[in-house]
Amino acid sequence: MGKLVLYGVEASPPVRACKLTLDALGLQYEYRLVNLLAGEHKTKEFSLKNPQHTVPVLEDDGKFIWESHAICAYLVRRYAKSDDLYPKDYFKRALVDQRLHFESGVLFQGCIRNIAIPLFYKNITEVPRSQIDAIYEAYDFLEAFIGNQAYLCGTGITIADYSVVSSVSSLVGLAAIDAKRYPKLNGWLDRMAAQPNYQSLNGNGAQMLIDMFSSKITKIV
Ligand SMILES: N[C@@H](CCC(=O)N[C@@H](CS)C(=O)NCC(=O)O)C(=O)O
To answer: Residues in domain GST N-terminal (predicted)?
Structure first.
């Protein structure tokens, strides 16, 4: 096995999804901090690793992969002893893929990034209410996806759970999850928070992003 390096920053949800996956697989890796607010991801050196200049980036034996969903799927295919976290069965895998794409397009891009970019990079401190409504709409979908299952894709945890929890655990700072309105989502979040090393791998970074949002937002309009 080659040397694994994860490039990222704690507050980043997709970085935390990769950390949860690496830990679940028992993989050793070096973690290299990329300070986004200081522009370290825009350097020539980092662009050679990832021309899209996003974190996370995984380095495996000198090769680079970016995009957390691709990284998590790669890690399971390449290193897992079983396929539980990313099943080979066509239908089961399709279900995991659907949730991963939901995280990528709806939760991360549609909710987190749409709020974060104006706040952190354009100094616009008022958040349109429609963007908060979009979070609740996403929660409605998640409530339906979970249904009576323990995890997002059934009885066992998969990389979809790691991906989705990375953003939901920060979105709660913008749109609280009411246990009466979202009993399934709330129960699932509790189960995820009870996973080994959850706090150090995801909880602390999720809170950092919540604090970053709180320090910038002046008003919901
Ligand atoms: N869908 C991507 C999102 C990656 C992403 O946008 N990461 C943010 C930090 S949370 C970033 O690197 N932003 C800096 C930039 O876009 O220049 C993934 O899952 O890896």
So the answer is: 2-83
68 and 6 Cβ atoms separated by less than 8 Å: no
147 and 115 fall within a common domain: yes
Residue nearest atom 15 in ligand 1 by C-alpha distance: 54
Report CA(195)–ligand 1 centroid distance (Å): 25
| The model scores a pTM over 0.95 | yes
Which residue range is the domain that position 196 belongs to?
90-220
Closest residue by Cα to atom 11, ligand 1, is 54
What letters, b where the CB count within 10 A reaches 16 and e where it falls short, cover 74-99?
bbbeeebeeeebbbeeeebbebbbeb
Please work out whether the CB of residue 36 comes within 6 Å of at least one atom of ligand 1: yes
Residue 31 placed within a domain: yes
For residue 84, is it within any domain? no
Q: Do 119 and 48 belong together in one domain?
A: no
108 pocket-lining for ligand 1 (C-beta < 6 Å): yes
The model's pLDDT over 41-68, given as tens digits with 9 standing for 90+, comes to 999 999 999 999 999 999 999 999 999 9
Q: Which of 79, 106, 132 is the last residue in one of the domains?
A: 79
Which residues are part of the catalytic machinery?
12
Domain boundary among 59, 79, 99: 79
Ligand 1 pocket test target in 37, 54, 57, 106 with most atoms within 8 Å of CB:
54
In a domain, 85, yes or no: no
